[in-house]
Amino acid sequence: MLDYMIYLITFAAGSILGLLYSYKQHGEPFVAVTKFNVPFAIVSIAGWVLGFCSGNVILSAIGFLLAGFVMGERPGYGRKETAVGLIIAIIVYVLLKRPLCMM
Amino acid sequence: MRIGALWNKLAKPKNIPRLFAFSLGIILIIGLIVPLALNPDQLYVRPAPQEQVDEGLAIAPYDRGGVPLKEPGNIDPQYPENAESLGMITGYMSPLAEFVSSISPYFGTSIYSSPGGLIDEILYYTRGFDTILESSILMMSFIIASWLSINYTMNRKNDEDEIKKDVKKAIDDSNRVASHVKANDAKARAKQLRRDN
Amino acid sequence: MISVSLFFYFGIFLAIVGSIATAWGPGVSDPVVRTFNTEIASIGVCLVLLCYNHVLALLTLLATTVIITLILFRAIIRLEEMGADV
Amino acid sequence: MNLMAEILIQVIIAFLAGSLLLGLHRKVMARVQKRPGPPIVQQLIHSLKFFFKETAFPKTVSKVFYIGIVFILALIWVVGVIVGPVAKDSLLILFGVYAVYKIVEHNSGSSSGSPYGKLSCVRAVLSAATELPLFAAIVFVYMVTGTMNIGEIITYQSVHGPLIYSIPLAALMFFMLILTKSPYSPFAITKDKVLISGFETEHFGFLRGFMLFSEAIAWYVLLWVFLTIFFGPLNAVGYLIGMIVISFVTGFINATTPLLSPNHSVMTQITIGAICFAGTALMIFTGVVA
Amino acid sequence: MDFVTLGGNLLGTIRLGDIVLYLTPFSLFLFAVLLGFTVLIGLSKPETQVEATMHYLNNTEVKVGQKELKQRRFLAVICGIASAGAMITGDLFNFTLFMALVGILNIGIVSAVKQTSVLDSAFNYGLIAMMCSLPLFGGAAIILAATGTLSLAVLSQMPASPMVVLGAVLMLLGILGESGVAPFFASKAEMFRTAGSPYIVIIHLSSLFIIVRAVEILLLVLW
Amino acid sequence: MEFLVSIIAIALMVIGAFGVIFMKKPLDKIIMFDIMDAGFVLVVVLFKYLDVALFAALAGPLSTLVFILSIVKIKEIRTDKIASGEAND
Amino acid sequence: MFVPQAFISMYLPAIYAGLIVGFIGTMAIAINRRELHILILTDIVGLAMIFVVSAVGTDLAEALILPGLVVELAETLAISEILITREMRKIEQDPRANLAKSSSIFPQAFSLDMEIMTTAPNFIALVLIGYGIFLTGFTGGAVAGGGIVLYALSKKARGLPVLMLDGIAGVSGIAWCLWIIGFLLFFVAPQYWLLSLFLAACGLLLKVASKVGLIGLLMREDIDNE
């Protein structure tokens, strides 16, 4: 169970960091952002893929930290990036799992 | 009727005992159609009614055999291994009870229920914990009732007539005190006057 | 020999009659009458206990019936005296 | 791994996961109502934040209970974690834990002396009715599986398939309980906004922190028990998906339904419980359930 | 079913003649919680209850005499001990007696208050508690007649007959009434609208725990 | 002999019971209650429990006393109420 | 040992009678609106309980009835007292609406000259108390308590004797302790069973009798002459 606790802690820490960071960046009142932020999307994809598919506690923990960082941004930011990251991670997970099952 | 109105009726405390009584009555009536029969394999079995009286035994309906203080009587508890001196009380009779049993054969109940005897065995020994609870129930409800009556329902300090009487007495008292004070005043003044002169 | 079952069934009869009288008898809107009618049922129960040879229970029932009646009458009197409508 | 470490880890997991799920719940409700809503991590930050706030004690409180009850609340759900995820012991003990939780809800309302807390306390008594569907659900689980031990229920399910297929109405009853315990639920009469925050109104500072802490654990444990006894042996991902789905569903229901008046809420739960009870009993005795 | 499937391993027994108290993890948990609460009740002071005044903005304090609070504390502590006992008892009739004791104490705790709505509810609850003697004792007696025993350890090994089911249903109704859950909730809820929260909590605590324990007992009897 | 006494006892109890139910005046009811009690004592004697009969015989007057006291008091309260004009019946 | 045939054949009529009496009582409660009447009718429900319990027809059944009776008595006392309190509180909070001219919150004295009140009670009370002491236990307590009630009723003194009540409460508390000690002694040291038997029996007698006697003191306020 220890690994799950580590994942949860890193994810929460990442979210908090992301929140702090995005408040520092954007001080204005709520706006629904339509722009797609590419660097954050890359971070998100990297995070979710690492988190789901690495199979290593430390790598997964880092992955969840990154994923949490994007997902935890203040409302209106980081939604699309998270969605893209999550979808790609699931696809990668399924692709990786299939051969494993066959073996 | 709309179900909401029905639910609102259930929220009034006054209707609850009646609702409870109604549902209890329904279950009791359902009980009439359930096949009921006494299981003959019971604990603490007693002989058929009037059998012992007709035999003319001195301690009529409660004779379960056994010699006082020597041989345990014939009773049948759930866990005999938990009761070491089982049946000894069944055979025991206090001196007073011995005396009564020697003068008349018709006082079996009283003889047997004076300390010792079958029912005492059950009440104090094999099922003693029940009796603790029952006497506590009695004690608690008497505590409640007597507390209420001493402090409220019988408390004459709240009674109007009594208060009126008290007020009257208090007025009288204060009048008397006032007159005393006045008299003392007059006396003191007289003394003062005398000294001045 | 006396017939135990005669008194047994009579006791049951008396208990049922007494309870019906308590519930719907004539003049039961007066609490005093209602309390009186419970006595009939309790005599019926006494007979049944006698037939079962529960003699000590019978003694206790006799004593408690008197005391319960006393308590109920006390409540009735106090409430009437107060003029409370319950 | 030794037992103490296991308990500690499970409690931390329960707290973090519960907080995040509650945050998700809040977010879902906000999105349904076309609001942006706070970030998901907000619930967790809140609970942590309260531990560092200044604590004030109202003048009217009954000191021992006012403070003690909060610790009892936290303790009782830690026991819940121990009995549930850690030891997989008897379901009846979890039932007892839930009963104590109701008591705590009641007493933290009344021990503050505030009129709002008092009202919440009275409503907590009313809502003791939610115990009954829970009891019925547990009894049906017992009737089908023949055991009260959570571990044995899991093994039963791994052989016979998840219980949700055989006694769906019992699962519905249990789900009602979860719905009742979720924030802003139509049945959450103790936390009606008429009563400010219900029984928590007068609890400030670290006391409120403990309350939020145990609420998160409670949410986690309830979801865990529901998933475990009705959905059979699951792995971590299964639990994760299940919990997120249930949080979504309850959030959606809560966002779209109004709060019921206290006695209607109680009677609705009882009525649904009774219908489910009768239905499941019928299913069992007519042999639909093997 | 026996104790082990329901409450966990049997940790020990206390033998008092025919009445044997059983300790399982389940009953011990309930017992310990009740005793803990009882200790807290004995130690704690009551809160000052504040009530909002109708039509005005100020609050009024509900005053309760010191003597009355002492009485309440006494009854509450006894109630805690009684319900703790009900958690570990292993005898059907003994359990019903514990319930009767808890019922009368619940009424007693609120009997001296001034609010008439509270007294009204206490009286109505008292009526139910009195009627409960029929389903509780009667149900136990019917089970006794059908099986010939009152000990839960023996009862749990016996198959259920329709008569036992009738007795169990009667007992269930008695338990529902005595502990005031729905649909009989209204009789008890109003009783909590008074000051003295430490003493009042035991009313709720005892009734909830008795339900929890009753579930176990009914399962033992029926299966 | 025993059969005869049984019949007498039952007759007394029946008369007493229906008397208590159907008599109008409270004092008549008390008398009828005593008749019923007498029948009951007879049954107890028939069952040969003399000590119980002794107690039943003592409890009879006791309850009669309670009845009389309360009925007199209630009557007084009711007449008072009618005299002061607040009760119409 | 098995239950005799007589009891087995008596079981069905007895339990049916119990169910019917209970049904009548509960239905009467269900259709009645006035609370005092419901209180009186619960007595009938209690009688039904005695039927059902006694139908088992063993010594155990009798041992279960005995305390059940006392419990009924106790609950009736407490609940009637609460009813009176409630009505008094109602009047107290709104005197104009409820209290009419000829009514009074507190019991008033009334004049009644009964020969029997001066002569009979002392004798009957003496016999009852003596017999109760001989019986001991629950039954003895109830019997002796009846005697004390009668004695207290016949005394001509008004005003609640709080000191005496306190004394009685103290006596019954001590008696309860005696009973507990006796009970524990039975299990801890069975060789002293005679001592513990007497402790238990006499403790219970004192307890029940003193508590029941208290009713007499309360009653004296209500139905007694000046």
Automatic annotation (TrEMBL), chain C:
<feature type="transmembrane region" description="Helical">
    <location>
        <begin position="40"/>
        <end position="73"/>
    </location>
</feature>
<keyword id="KW-0472">Membrane</keyword>
<keyword id="KW-1133">Transmembrane helix</keyword>
<feature type="transmembrane region" description="Helical">
    <location>
        <begin position="7"/>
        <end position="28"/>
    </location>
</feature>
<protein>
    <submittedName>
        <fullName>DUF2107 domain-containing protein</fullName>
    </submittedName>
</protein>
<dbReference type="Pfam" id="PF09880">
    <property type="entry name" value="EhaE"/>
</dbReference>
<dbReference type="InterPro" id="IPR011317">
    <property type="entry name" value="Prd_NiFe_hyd_3_EhaE"/>
</dbReference>
<keyword id="KW-0812">Transmembrane</keyword>
